[in-house]
Structures are given as structure tokens and as C-alpha cells.
Amino acid sequence: MPMSYSLLLAEDPAPGQQPGGLVGSPMFPFFLVALMLLFWVVVILPMSRRQKKEQEQLLATLKRGAKVLTSAGIVGVVVSAKDGEDEIVIRSEDAKLRIKRNVVVQVLGTDAAETAKQ
Q1: What does the alpha-carbon distance between residue 21 and residue 68 come to, in Å, rounded to a whole number?
Q2: What InterPro entries does the entry give (predicted)?
């Protein structure tokens, strides 16, 4: 009489063998932590380093006339940006804003009218 697969799955494990395999093992939490650590080292850490380097390069190249987007969603043109200073001044419509360099998210290009005033 042939045995069905469902009957094989429903049987008790062999004597001396623990049920559950790896998941039932007391080492399973350590395995999960090690797997998450490996993922962090291989994927997340290099990605965050690359993003930080790109942001630093972006902030180092800010100069007068550059059209920028801030993290708050404000689009403006850089009026003054001195090397070594943490703050820049941007003009958005009729307002001038003094902002920190690190809130600049993206450089959208240059404003021809602002560069002509130089």
C-alpha cells in the first residue's frame, strides 16, 4: 500500500530528532541577528556612505546663481554663499532667506538673471 505525502508530513519525527529544524533551534535568534547584521554591512552601510559623499560634494559646489531645492520644498536662487560658512542666502520670489547649507537637497541648475548681476 503506497504512502501519501500528506501522511508523511503528518508523521512524528524520527526518535532523537527535534521537531522544527532551524526555526525550533535555540540558536535561531542568533542566526536572525547575524543575518540582519550581514544585510546592514553589505547593503545599507555602503549606500549611506555613498549618499553622504554625494551630499558633501553637492554642498561644496554651491555658488551664486545656482537654483536650489531645500528639504522644506522651497525653490530659490543662491544670492550669497561663502566657502567655509555654514549658512547661505537664497532668494525665492520676493523673499530672501538665510538657510543652512545642509538643508539643500538638490541643485536644479543656474539662474541666468542672477549670474548676469555678478
Answers
A1: 56
A2: Preprotein_translocase_YajC
